[in-house]
Amino acid sequence: MNKTDLIHRAAQMSGATKKDTEAVAEALFDAMCQALASGEKITLTNFGTFEVRRREARVGRNPKTGDIIQIPSGKTPVFHPCAALKKAVDK
Questions:
Q1: Choosing a second label site near 18 at 20 to 30 A (CA), which of 10, 28, 47, 71?
Q2: Alpha-carbon distance 6 to 26, whole Å?
Q3: Which residues of 70-88 are buried (b: 16+ CB within 10 A; e: fewer)?
Q4: How would you class 35 by CB atoms within 10 Å of its CB: exposed for 0-12, middle for 13-18, buried for 19 or more?
Q5: What is the spatial distance between Cα 21 and Cα 48, in angstroms, rounded to a whole number?
């Protein structure tokens, strides 16, 4: 499922128009990106938690050449599903 499919399904389930649902989805995604970029943690009850984690610098290998390379430190978003979501997926 891609974003278009998700918006289409949400519009059907809510009875709203696709255009309105797309506007809400875009605003939601933008708000989530801004919150994560500023270091905030996002908790959605009965869904899960989004947060940003810091990755330390490390040594890796170039898979093509086998050369050892330095991988710089950085930040990455992570998602932790809640128990209800894990249970729903496990059915």
A1: 47
A2: 12
A3: eeeeeeeeeeeeeeeeeee
A4: middle
A5: 22
Residue 51's identity, in one-letter code, is E
d(CA 57, CA 24): 38
Is it the case that residue 22 has pLDDT exceeding 90?
yes
Q: Evaluate if residue 26 carries a pLDDT over 90.
A: yes
Place of tokens 């989004």: 50
**Do 75 and 39 touch, CB atoms closer than 8 A?**
no
Model-level pTM? 0.79
Smallest Cα–Cα separation from 79: which of 26, 32, 25?
Answer: 32
Q: Which of 59, 31, 36, 66 is CA-nearest to residue 49?
A: 36
48-55: strand order across its sheet: 42-44, 48-55, 74-81
